[in-house]
Amino acid sequence: MNHPAPLLDVRDLSVTIQTPMGPLSAVRGIDLTLQAGETLCIVGESGSGKSMTSLALMGLLPPRARARAGHIRFGADALDPDAPGQIERLRGDRIAMIFQEPMTALNPTLTLGEQLVEGLLHHDPSRTRAAATARAVELLSACGVADPERRLTQYPHQLSGGLRQRVMIAMALMTKPDLLIADEPTTALDRTISLQILALLKDLQKRFDLGLILVTHDFDVVREVADHICVVYAGEIVETGTRDQVLNNPAHPYTRALLSCVPTSHASADGRLGFLPGVVPSLIGPDEGCQFRDRCALAHAGCAREAPWQEAGTGHRIRCTLAVDDIATLYRAPVPPAAKAYQPDQNPAQPALEVRGVIQRYTLRKGLFGKKGQLTALRGIDLSVNKGEVLGLVGESGSGKSTLARAMLGIERPAEGAVLINGQPISSVQRTRRARLVQPVLQDPYSSLNPRRTVEDTIRLPLDIHGIGTVEERRREVRRMMDLCGLPTRTAGSFPSQMSGGQRQRVAIASALVLRPEILICDEPTSALDVSVQAQILNLLKDLRAEFNLTLVMISHDLGVIRAMSDRVAVMYFGRIVEVGTGRDLFEHPQHPYTELLLGGVAKVGGQGAKVTGTSPNPLAPPQGCSFSGRCPRAVDRCQADDPLLAGTARHAVACHVPA
Amino acid sequence: MGAYIIRKLGEALAVCVAVSVIAFVLVQSTGDLAVAMGGLDASAEETARLREVYGLDQSLFQQYLGWAWRVLQGDLGTSYFSQEDVLTLIMESLPVTAVLAVSSLTLGLLISIPAGVLCAIKPGSRFDRVCLALSVLGQAMPSYWVGLLLILLFGVTLQVLPISGTQSAASFVMPAMTLAWFVFPVFLRLSRAGMIDVLSSDYIRTARAKGLPRRTVLVKHALRNAILPVVSVATVQFGFLLGGSIVVESVFSLNGIGLLAWSAIQRADYPVVQAVVLVVAIIFVLLNVVADLLNAALDPRLMSEQ
Amino acid sequence: MSVRTTNLPLDQRGPRFLRLPFAGKFGFRLGIVMLTGFVLVAVFAPYIAPHDPYSQSLLARLKPPVWAGGTWEHPLGTDGFGRDYLSRLIYGTRISLIVGLGAAALAMLIGTTLGVIAGVFGGAANRIVSFIISIRLALPSLLLALAILQIAGSGVMVVVVVLAVTHWDRFAVVLRTACRQVAGQDYVTRARAMGASEARIVRTEILPNVLSHIVIIFTFEMAQCILAAAALSFLGLGIQAPEPSWGLMMSEGRAFLVINPWLITIAGFAIMLLVLAVNLVGDGLRDLVVPKERS
Q1: Do C29 and C20 meet the contact criterion of CB atoms below 8 Å apart?
Q2: Is the pLDDT confidence value at C6 over 80?
Q3: Chain A residues 91-130 with a CB less than 8 Å from chain B
Q4: Could you give the ipTM of this predicted complex?
Q5: Do B145 and C268 touch (CB under 8 A)?
Q6: Which of A105, A109, A368 sits opposite B300 (nearest CB)?
Q7: How much is the pLDDT for C132?
Q8: Structural domains of chain B, count
Q9: How far is C295 from chain A (nearest CA, A)?
Q10: What is the pLDDT at residue A641?
Q11: Mean of the pLDDT values across residues B174-179?
Q12: A13 assigned to some structural domain
């Protein structure tokens, strides 16, 4: 391959942060090369230094961080990362950046119009405000923002998250930059919105011949947009190559293990995910060796020395002390033996958990004399889960899935309808008895545990509340649960602040199961965790399901997680179940247009034009007809007036007038 | 926006009613009002007549309604001590206190906001540490003590400023300095914390990523958002100064509303005390409404609240 | 291979409250030393004070402190009744500390109860508590305190109650927010799902996690109450003569402002030092609990 001079060429970039415990090497000698019009994905787990790399390139490092580099060449310019003037001259002009949080990345007290034009007016003072505004309008429509003139006078809070990210992108492109750095641009967005934004980025890149550096932890994103990939671990690039090389033929043990942890379209409830034990090492202090050696199945004494680059193909390189061929022969996919097969009862006399016509409303009221508003979070849910089954509940933010979880836990009584456990309404079950039927595992491992309790106290709490067993019996039981959940005995006295996210989630699971509940409701149990830790937790849940004959409700926005866990899947949209069916039926033959949208990739979304840019309807004033009709590519007149109900067989049902 | 104003006014009205009940009960709890009004040497018939005229033989609730009705018509009662109309007394002294409050607040804000912003730009710098130390000191010094020290310095030793009275503008210099020193720590900490908070926010990073000059980022993007909480606290603090300037007014013998209230308390002149409590509380409540509206005007997020 | 620490949070030294007395900045340590000093002086006042704080001597009126020409018989001089100033200052520590602690404790009781009710139960409870707080803030507290003292009479207990009634609002406001935030945490949801009663949830899940807020506000309100008590005494209400209250000492000293300015200066300085000590401790505690402000 014969490339012209690269747009960006970075050699040996390092970032060091001063901490009270010593200098922390967040980035250790990273090399990057990017051609104009190309997309480079920097992919890694948290703590890999991927965000620090992008901030260093922009000269936006936090005050205590220092960057050094062999050289940074941007087009014809050579830049010194430690000489502030140089990067700042290009920043916001030739190089632009967009960030993760669209909700907080825009100034709440300035109009969008002002925020759009101010950068351009600064970098090109000869331009008039009118000309800059005209460019803003042009770019907003290019970014799929309807009615751009009106947006200019609006403030950020008046826009949805997806729309704000479009405005952010338009803002970044105002000065016709050559390079756009996007740091997790879609992480805070729902999947359907995220797909739209990625499609937009690809489209704009082609149109403006942009170089794009996309920093992400999400392999779905990488698969959609990358030309080249850098896999970073603990501040170092461990593998780099084209998308096909890295994703389809990973060479480095880390990339191999990590990819095995990602739930893909092949994942199913019967199998297990890959296995990558341990956590990222401390980056404080000097360490020249391979950073991955503590977690690597192939590690040997030589790994403490600096790892050399190895060629794995044309432009495909890894950093490892072993030769590429040796890795290929030695490496065994670290997938532990499959969990013991568990067959749920297909035709039981009675479902373990049944939701009947549940409607939930909340009254909103502000102040002493505030107006009341009524928000309908659940608009009639019917659902049943058989004993031993895993039901996956997938939906985006605002679909009501967490409200449904609270109703199923019996800690919030629905406005109408009932939740039945083994045929008995949960509202008539006594509080302590209910706790032994159904328990939750919740999303945020940081807020799941009382910071004032040790691990042992947390797991023992349910036994204390219920007064089960003697002190010694409780202690034994806690130790047994810790053992089952993969918590080392020495952590018993630890406080949550001393544990990693994955360990905390293990503690939460252990304390949920110590009462031996029949049903476990998992509300986004892994969405705050890294992919490798997510795989550990999902595998643990699979094991525990078999061990305790659990019935599981798995709530997630992540289709991969749902696919890897569930026997049956229900899709929620705007307080309703729009489609429900066995995992295979639903994923291979989706019938509801919303399910199709969720399952579709960027290509599919990109091809559907402006229709999909719509968002969810206002929950304070639900529409009369089908709530999805505003975004639906197949909507007919009837959908506007007539709200479809769930219809079909027990295997597969859908609420749509025009199913596929 | 309209609904927002109405809601705030409704809440303010409810608080005013509650405050008036408390002010009413305050005077009721001092004993037989007819005796207090007539004086100890009044005859039994005179006392009985007063009781009848002022409706003191009615039920408490009726008395309250009658009193509230008179208050609404501007009749705040008569001073036991001087037999003057209480409203007149208040109207005479309120301007003095208002001038004092406005000047000290202005002085305090003019010093503390720039200082707070400078501190926030370089937290931990020498300037920051000095300002924080001064604010800790300011919080610990009783305001009357500061006033007395100022009198000792400027009035007694240097003899450059009058130590009491309201004869000239110079009379207000020391009282205003005293109260400005009192509000300085509040605003310094508030503007410093607000600015530090804003400077670490995502939208400041966005502004920097656009390559905007440092000054633009600080003034246009950070300052306005950082000042938002200061605006509402300053408005509310103004109300505190109206009711809390008693000690300073007594130290400098300023004929403000605080001194009026204090001398009334010493003379057990309860109609005056009651009226001052009521007036100050109502002004405070109104200032709170103003603060809410100011906030709404400066923060577009509140403006478009449904 | 050497043992490498894992990428855990920096806070590995156990729960924060255990480290409190040993950590923090210079100001915090200074505050603790000063406050300990004041407490010791208050406790051992009879052993330290050179004279009886109440005994008058018309022969020894208005003696200046040693550095201004006085004698070691009365190191800080004497007041207008010839009472030994140092002894009165030492006994005054007792009054300030008792009033400050008592009023702040009672205010804590009132404010915390209201704040916890509003924060945990929300809805109508929250609206009612908000209304009560609005009323409390609208009333001019010093004025009201003076009026109540005039009506109800004086004495240490009355002062404590009056100050508590006018200083509980910050507890209520902060704890309402803190409790609402804690009540929204997943561990509260989990405790509820475990079948814990609401009372148990408040006791074991919510209160321990807002305790740090209570302690911090307590120190600030204690400082405020000491200042307010001194202001009341200065205005001639509350603690009455011949008690050696610092505010009262300043009030008595005003008459001799020109003759002997030390009478005012020293008592005011004592108040400042005590309030400073309490505030430094409060600031230090807050920095330990909320370290984000330091960059």
Answers
A1: no
A2: no
A3: 91-93, 96-97, 99, 101, 104-110, 118-119, 122-123
A4: 0.89
A5: yes
A6: A109
A7: 95
A8: 1
A9: 9
A10: 87
A11: 93
A12: yes
